């Protein structure tokens, strides 16, 4: 009976194991797969939604795109250095647990997963709009397009790694090929007589500062998703080398395509303000290029839009798996398919939430409300990663890292400033329903953490390997700070003035409460996932164990030394040799 129970335990552990790197993946194939994933995720933002930022005027929005591109360069350099030090599939969630604590780290993980879930919703709702332009009869039934898109994306995510990588490469090259065709085909149109001045009054082109901050988050849609490559550490060879290089290669490709698309869309007719409200901004070029109808031209924007949604679905699956591995979500979500190893329950959870949010299309404009919520969560996750990089760079500067950010802490500070400005633009100049909805979702996640996750959370196996040293060092520094804190100094001062027996009665309640809370918060609560111990249990730090052993040895030596000196003859040597060592040479 005991053997049978043990075998069931081992089966459950194998069942709940995290996805592993596919066998036989070379470094070259890892580069290609990573680049393809980055292009499929980021290329979809070139085909829709970004053009609404042109309401601020071409110069203001062009400056916003430039600033946002520089911020993403700094962010990718920071993430590349972090990945080269501690490869971890949890993304911002793992760094935030170490930097801000477990509760805030869980909320950052929720922000990141909800960000990608909302991205998928926005992509597939936009896909239904493209379908409605091509087939007007489908306007009344957009959910048919949603169901088909989700079924195809989930089906491909459940395939084995080789099949999915080939499918992903096909989508990447198809999306990039259509965009390059648009850019190259637009050059002769821009040089011909068809390229006329935009039919817009000068007063309609806004160039003020508030409009710049209002449209700054729209510029991020050109590059959103390139950070998802850091969640693929288990699926590539040498992630500390391949991920930083592939990520920067993807980003520079997206920057080049974004700038060329921005220029071509503005120089081709009809120009502003028509292009700012267009559902598919590439239609004006494709219709002139191929002499086709608007319905046929809209079909060319569908592959990249679907590919982007599928890539974001892979991203939220990785985040959900990381949260489940730390038992912040029930372990049942880690159940994988036996044939391919795909975490089918985690995929189904994120897909169900994203599909339900699609029905908000009937009540609000998804590209306004849900898009703002997704970008708000994205900037919070970016900001936490930049802060985590700064702490990691300062406190563990001697760790070996194959890739080092050329911008250092200053680049992280610049990117953090851009994220803060973007958050301000979303809160102050966008629809207030978006920030309120985002706060409501975070409130629900916080309540869930207090009720369930706080009692069950552990460090996953990956966190033990990658970030446990950082957690222990962080807790040691907090303990040292607590010993030098104001509460400790005030307590010693009160002890000198009052007798020890009256110390507890005379000590201010505020100091006692704060000191108790600080003591509870700084205790080392390190847990290993394989041992099944929760984070809430107190575990002595290694330094405390060493101090206790050293103190015990000193006590034993002090007790043995007097007995040893009194029992030894006067002329006997103080030490004895256990081996016949030869005399030392003179």
Outline:
Residues 565-586 have a biased composition (Low complexity). The chain is mostly helical and 586 residues long.
Notes on the protein architecture:
The protein has two domains: 25-458, Amino acid/polyamine transporter I (Up-down Bundle); 467-522, no CATH class. Helix content is 67%, strand content 0%. It is built from 22 helices and no strands. The model is unreliable at 1-23, 198-206, 481-541 and 563-586 (pLDDT under 50).
Structural class: mainly alpha
Shape: globular
Radius of gyration, CA atoms, in whole angstroms = 29 Å
Number of helices: 22
- CATH top level of the largest domain? Mainly Alpha
* Helix-strand sequence: HHHHHHHHHHHHHHHHHHHHHH
Integer count of domains: 2
Question: Per CATH, what is the topology of the largest domain?
Answer: Amino acid/polyamine transporter I
- The CA-CA distance between the termini, in Å, is 70 Å
Which CATH architecture of the largest domain?
A: Up-down Bundle
> How would you sum up the major sheet?
none
Estimate the mean pLDDT confidence. 78
- In terms of DSSP E residues, the strand content is under 5%
**Can you tell me the CATH superfamily of the largest domain?**
Amino acid/polyamine transporter I
Name the helicity range: 55-70%
* Strands, total number: 0
User: Unreliable segments (pLDDT under 50, ≥5 consecutive)?
Assistant: 1-23, 198-206, 481-541, 563-586
Main location: membrane
Protein name: Amino acid permease/ SLC12A domain-containing protein
Subcellular location: Cell membrane
Membrane topology: Multi-pass membrane protein
